[in-house]
Write a structure and sequence with these properties.
Largest interface: A-B, 81 and 79 residues
Structural class of chain B: mainly alpha
Largest sheet of chain B: none
Number of strands of chain B: 0
Distance between the termini of chain B: 21 Å
Oligomer: heterodimer
Structural class of chain A: mainly alpha
Number of helices of chain B: 7
Order of helices and strands of chain A: HHHHHHHHHHHHHHHHHHHHHH
Shape of chain B: globular
Number of helices of chain A: 22
Number of strands of chain A: 0
Largest sheet of chain A: none
Strand content of chain B: under 5%
Shape of chain A: globular
Helix content of chain A: over 70%
Helix content of chain B: 55-70%
Order of helices and strands of chain B: HHHHHHH
Radius of gyration of chain A: 22 Å
Distance between the termini of chain A: 53 Å
Radius of gyration of chain B: 21 Å
C-alpha cells in the first residue's frame, strides 16, 4: 500500500461513510453491512475479513433467544382481528369515565391494555382511532384531545410487553430479553398515569374539552370485565411466565400468540385475513433481522477500529456530571427521532452510545427503558411522527395539524415520565431486580 | 382479499418485459414470504405443544431448541427479496423524497449497486458455509437434525435478493435514461402520510371501501 491509514482514521471514515449512505436513502442494513465489510477488510485484509463477515448473518440470527421476536410481531398482527379493542374500551369507560376527560382517560388505559397483546404502536394508533375517537367526538370532546390522546396512548405499546423494539435493544446490547420486558411494566404504567394527569388537568381547566361520563352501576362495571379476559390472559401468561421463570420469552410469546389467535378465530377471522397477517409478520420480521445483522457487521468493524472505546473514553473524560451527558444523549435522540424511524435510529446510535453509557455507570436495563421511551416520543413529534399520521390517516375529518397539536401536551407528559425515571431509577429497575435474581 | 396487497398498490401492473420479469420474480418472492409467515405460525404451534406437553404430560418436545434454531433461517431470511420489492426495509427517505427527474434514479442506483456488492460477497460465503455443513454432515447437538438445509436457506434467500436487485438495476437505469417514463418494478417513494395509510390498512383499521382504494390506487384521494 502506498499509504497506511491509522485505525482511528478508518473508524471515523467508516462512520462518515455510513452517515452519508443513510442520508442518501440507501437501505440501512445494506449501508451498514457494506461499510462494515470494507472497513474490516481494510483493517485485517480480504481473506480473514470477508470470511468473518460472511458468517455473521447466520451466526447472529440463528439463536433460540431471538425467536421471540417473530412471535411478538405475530401477536401484534393478529391482535386487531381478535376484536378486543371494543370490549377493552367499554370496560375502561365504565370504570374510569367519571373522571374529568373520562373518555380520554379510558382511552389511555384501553390502549395500554391493548399494548399488552400488541407489539407495534402504529397498529394500536390505527385501531383506537377507529374505536375510541368516534365515541369521544359523539360525547362532544375536543377533537384535538380525542386525536392526541389516541396518538400518544399508542406509544405506550413500545414500553409494555410484548414489545418488538425492546427485543431489538436487548439483542444489540446483549441484555437479558426477559428482564427488559419485565422492566417495561412499571414505566408503562407510570407513563399512562402521566398521560392521564395531562388529560385531567386539560379538562378541568376547560370542562368543555372533555366531560365526565357518569351513571354506570357497579353491576354494569363488573359485567364489562369478562370481555377483557383474553387480554388479561395474555398479560398473565407473558408476565408471570417470565417473572417466575415458568417459560422462556419464546415460549411465552408462543402461548400469547396462540391465545390471541384463538380469540381471532372466535371473532371470525377470515382465511385471507390470516394470510395477509402472516405475510405482514414475515415482512416485518425479515426487515428487523436484516437490519440487526447488517448493523452487527458494522459493529464488528467498529470494534476492530476501536471507535466505541475511544468514544467512551472521551465521554467519561468530559468535565461535566454524568447527568449532563445523559441529557445530551436524550437530546440527540429527540432530534434524530424527528427524521428517522425509531428502530433505525436505535441501531445506528447504540453501538457507539451504549458502551459510553455503561462506562458512566448507568444500568443497561434502565437505559433500555429510557431509550425505548424516547422512541415513543419520536412517534409524536413533527414532521414524521408516525403515530399522529396514522391517526390522521384513519380519521380524515380531523386535520393533521390538529392531531399534532393535540399530541403536544402528551409529549410534555413523556418528559415528566422520563424525569421520574431519571430522578428515581429504581422505578425502572426494582421489578426486574426483585423478582428475577 | 380486501387488505391483501394494501402495502403495495402498484404490484404486478407494470408493462413490457421489465413488468413481466417483475411479476415472475414477485410471484416467487411472495411464495417464499408465505413460507416464512406460515413458518412463524408453526413456530407458535411448536412452542405451545412444547409448553403444554411439558406442563401437563411431562412430555416436552425432544430437541425443541434445535428445532427452533433450524427453523430460524426460514423465518428471518426467506422473505428478504419480498420485503425489498415492497420497500419494506428501513431507510431514511427525508432527502430522497425531495429529488426530482434524473436525480432520484441516480440516488436509488447507489443503493442498488452497494446492495449487489454486499449481497454477492455474503452469497459466496454463506454458500461455502452451507456446503461445508453438507460435506461434513453437520447436525444439531440434541436431536441430530442435519444442519445444511437450514444453512442453505441463506444463500437461496440472498440469491433471490440478488435477482431482485438486478431487476431494480434495470428499472432505475431505464428511469435514468428517460425520467419521463412511468416507474415499473420498483416500490414508489411514499411520504409519512401514505405510509400511515398503508399501515392502517395493514392493521385492518380502515373501513373496507377505503382499504380497497388504498389497495388499488395507493391513496384514498
Amino acid at each position: 500500500m502506498p499509504f497506511e491509514l491509522s485505525r482511528d482514521a478508518i473508524g471515523i471514515l467508516g462512520c462518515v461513510a455510513l452517515l452519508l449512505f443513510v442520508l442518501a436513502g440507501v437501505r440501512v442494513y445494506i449501508a451498514a453491512a457494506i461499510v462494515g465489510l470494507v472497513g474490516i477488510v481494510a483493517i485485517i485484509g480480504w481473506k480473514a475479513g470477508a470470511g468473518m463477515v460472511g458468517t455473521i448473518p447466520h451466526s447472529k440470527s440463528v439463536n433460540y433467544t431471538l425467536s421471540v421476536l417473530p412471535l411478538f410481531i405475530l401477536i401484534g398482527y393478529l391482535a386487531y382481528h381478535a376484536g378486543m379493542t371494543q370490549t377493552l374500551f367499554e370496560a375502561c369507560k365504565r370504570w374510569l369515565g367519571w373522571m374529568p376527560g373520562g373518555l380520554a382517560v379510558s382511552t389511555i388505559f384501553a390502549v395500554a391494555g391493548f399494548s399488552a397483546v400488541s407489539g407495534a404502536s402504529t397498529a394500536a394508533a390505527a385501531v383506537f382511532a377507529r374505536v375510541a375517537i368516534p365515541e369521544m367526538l359523539k360525547a362532544g370532546y375536543d377533537r384535538r384531545l380525542a386525536a392526541g390522546v389516541v396518538a400518544a396512548g399508542a406509544t405506550l405499546d413500545s414500553l409494555i410487553p410484548p414489545s418488538a423494539i425492546m427485543v431489538v435493544y436487548a439483542i444489540i446490547v446483549e441484555a437479558s430479553i426477559g428482564k427488559l420486558l419485565v422492566a417495561g411494566f412499571i414505566p408503562g404504567f407510570i407513563s399512562a398515569i402521566c398521560y392521564s394527569i395531562i388529560v385531567v388537568i386539560w379538562s378541568t381547566w376547560n370542562p368543555n374539552v372533555g366531560r365526565p361520563i357518569r351513571g354506570f352501576t357497579w353491576g354494569e362495571r363488573f359485567a364489562s370485565l369478562p370481555g377483557t379476559f383474553p387480554v388479561v390472559g395474555v398479560i398473565l401468561i407473558i408476565f408471570a411466565s417470565m417473572l417466575f421463570g415458568w417459560a422462556t420469552p419464546t415460549e411465552a410469546g408462543a402461548l400469547g400468540a396462540f391465545v390471541v389467535y384463538i380469540s381471532a378465530l372466535l371473532n371470525r377471522m377470515k382465511w385471507s385475513e390470516l394470510n395477509s397477517a402472516l405475510l405482514e409478520t414475515a415482512k416485518l420480521t425479515v426487515m428487523i433481522f436484516a437490519i440487526i445483522w447488517g448493523i452487527l457487521i458494522f459493529v464488528r468493524f467498529l470494534g476492530f477500529a476501536g471507535v466505541p472505546e475511544r468514544f467512551s473514553e472521551w465521554v467519561v473524560s468530559l468535565p461535566v456530571p454524568r447527568i449532563v451527558i445523559m441529557l445530551g444523549i436524550l437530546f440527540v435522540y429527540l432530534v434524530l427521532g424527528c427524521f428517522m424511524d425509531a428502530i433505525g435510529m436505535l441501531l445506528l446510535t447504540l453501538p457507539v452510545f451504549y458502551p459510553a453509557v455503561i462506562k458512566l455507570g448507568y444500568d443497561p436495563i434502565w437505559f433500555g427503558i429510557i431509550v425505548v421511551k424516547m422512541c415513543g416520543v419520536c412517534l409524536l413529534t413533527p414532521p414524521i411522527g408516525l403515530s399522529c399520521f396514522v391517526v390522521g390517516a384513519v380519521r380524515r375529518d380531523i386535520p393533521l395539524a390538529d392531531v399534532f397539536r393535540g399530541a403536544m401536551p402528551f409529549v410534555i407528559a413523556d418528559f415528566m415520565a422520563i424525569g421520574i425515571f431519571l430522578a428515581w431509577p429504581w422505578t425502572v429497575t426494582w421489578l426486574p431486580d426483585q423478582l428475577m435474581n | 382479499m380486501a387488505h391483501a396487497d394494501a402495502s403495495d398498490p402498484t404490484l404486478g401492473t407494470g408493462r413490457g418485459a421489465l413488468g413481466a420479469v417483475d411479476r415472475i420474480a414477485h410471484r416467487i418472492e411472495k411464495a417464499t414470504a408465505l413460507i416464512s409467515g406460515y413458518g412463524i405460525f408453526a413456530l407458535m404451534l411448536v412452542g405451545v405443544a412444547h409448553v403444554l406437553g411439558r406442563k401437563f404430560f411431562g412430555l416436552p418436545i425432544f430437541g425443541y431448541i434445535d428445532i427452533v434454531e433450524i427453523m430460524m433461517t426460514f423465518l428471518v431470511f426467506l422473505g428478504l427479496a419480498y420485503t425489498d420489492r415492497l420497500g419494506g426495509h428501513i431507510r431514511m427517505e427525508l432527502f430522497v423524497s425531495f429529488l426530482r427527474g434524473r436525480w432520484l434514479p441516480a440516488f436509488e442506483l447507489v443503493g442498488v449497486v452497494l446492495g449487489l456488492a454486499i449481497v454477492a460477497v455474503l452469497f459466496v460465503y454463506s454458500w461455502d458455509h452451507a456446503m461445508r455443513a453438507y460435506t461434513l454432515g453437520d447436525s444439531t447437538i440434541d436431536a441430530q437434525i442435519p444442519l445444511w438445509p437450514s444453512k442453505m436457506v441463506i444463500p437461496v434467500s440472498l440469491g433471490l435478493l440478488f435477482i431482485r436487485l438486478l431487476v431494480s438495476l434495470w428499472a432505475y437505469v431505464r428511469l435514468l435514461l428517460d425520467p419521463s417514463k412511468t416507474p415499473v418494478a420498483v416500490p414508489d417513494i411514499i411520504d409519512p402520510e401514505q405510509q400511515a395509510l398503508r399501515e392502517a390498512a395493514a392493521a385492518g383499521a380502515l373501513d373496507d371501501e377505503r382499504a380497497d382504494k388504498v389497495a388499488t390506487h395507493g391513496s384514498v384521494r
